[in-house]
Amino acid sequence: MKIGIDARFLGPVSKGLGRYVERLVENLEKIDRENEYIIFLRRENWDYYTPKFSNFKKVLADCKWYSFKEQIMMPLAIWKEKVDLMHFPHFNIPIFCPIKFVATIHDLILLQFPTPRATTLSPIFYKIKYLVYKFVIWFAVWRAKKVLTVSEYTKKEIIKYFKIKEDKIEVAYEACDGVEYGQLKIPEKESLAKLGITKPFILYVGNAYPHKNLETLIEVYRDLAIGCQLVFVGKEDYFYKRLKEMVHENEKEKIIFTNFVNEAVLADLYRGARLYVFPSFIEGFGLPGLEAMNYGLPVLASNSSCLEEIYEDAAIYFNPRDKDDIIKKIKLIYFDEELRKRLSEKGFLQIKKYSWESLAKKTLEIYKNEEKKRREN
Q1: Distance between CA 365 and CA 371 in Å, rounded?
Q2: Dist. CA 251–CA 45, nearest whole Å
Q3: Which Pfam families match (predicted)?
């Protein structure tokens, strides 16, 4: 069987999706010598991937995702390579895809949390974008032979929104990269002091989209009064700039925005923090919390969406809409050294439940089942 994987997100061009595709491909290389793989890449990530085995081949499909160009070029590239089954790791599937495909839907956040605050567009154009997004996901879910998703929570949401049969969707959990990988990837070291961190601190890592609920975290921090710092790690964009506007001049030494940091610095931040706080209203998987556990950092998370499913008893939970509850739980972990130690130990055990190899095995099983159906028909 010849399997195509849309790897235009692979690598640093898109951090979350890029890592998913990268780990999927490298683990498929480890476990499958039987099938042939066509890895479609853009010019900007062409050099980032080099096939390790002869049954993996990379092909240039230099069209940007969500563009009109991909609607034309991707079907032509797929047809030219005579692919039997295509895997799209995101919902941006060409309408005229010429063959059967499976799709990964990571979350339905834009459907679950629609708000004009999540865009720089005018309300009218945002509404148009929302309707287009809804159609594209509907198309992906209904035309796909199989839908993969990353949590039981998201699976239930897909069924609820699109009224499809449960057996069409398979859950294949993501995983977090090991500490050693981060150290080997970028070995440079920078001290926390260079970032302005001089006290015990509470850490958040990720983007600042409205569903992340970071405005509430800043408001909660102001009421904590426990002499710590609050550190946000994420590439500065429109949403982080808007969040920074909330911070008063006399708070800038207490509330720190690091912007983008490399893996070595991020590892130092995870190791140096007192606790990790994840106040999000909605998540598809909640990878940052697992990454924190990977470094022994206690995790405090909202009790919404998938987070309790993914972290189980390795985290403490709060109501993300209840500031008093958040304050209470932060203080509980912050001042209880024994509790932090127990959470750290549970976190190490929890991350072992997830692996990229397991995800690749589950995905390969789906490929084989679809090929079996194709031959029977």
Answers
A1: 10
A2: 40
A3: Glyco_transf_4, Glycos_transf_1
- Per CATH, the architecture of 2-175+355-376 is what? 3-Layer(aba) Sandwich (3.40)
Q: What is the pLDDT of residues 10-28, one digit of tens each?
A: 987 667 789 999 999 999 9
Q: Which two tokens stand for residue 353?
A: 């439940």
* Lookup result for tokens 């010429």: 98
Which pair of structure tokens corresponds to residue 184? 């080997």
pLDDT in tens, 316-375: 999 999 999 999 999 999 999 999 999 999 999 999 999 999 999 999 999 999 988 878
Any idea where the domains of the chain sit in the sequence? 2-175+355-376, 179-351
How far apart (Å, rounded) are the C-alpha atoms in residues 40 and 312? 37
Q: CA 25 to CA 56: how far, in whole Å?
A: 9
Q: How far apart are CA 94 and CA 96, in angstroms?
A: 5
Residues 6+ apart with CB under 8 A from 319: 302, 303, 325, 326
CATH code for 179-351?
A: 3.40.50.2000
> Please, how many CA atoms are within 13 Å of residue 95, restricted to the half-sphere of its CB?
9
* pLDDT score at 61: 96
pTM for the complete prediction? 0.90
104-135 as b/e: b if 16+ CB within 10 A: bbbbbbbbbbeeeebbeeeeeebeeebeebbe
Burial of 186 (0-12, 13-18, 19+ CB in 10 A): middle
The DSSP line for 243-265 is: HHTTS-GGGTTTEEE--S--HHH
pLDDT digits (tens, 9 = 90+) for 111-168: 887 666 656 666 777 777 778 888 889 999 999 999 999 999 999 999 999 999 999 9
DSSP state of 114: -
Q: Could you give phi then psi for residue 318, rounded to 5 degrees?
A: -140, 165
Longest dimension (CA), the chain: 70
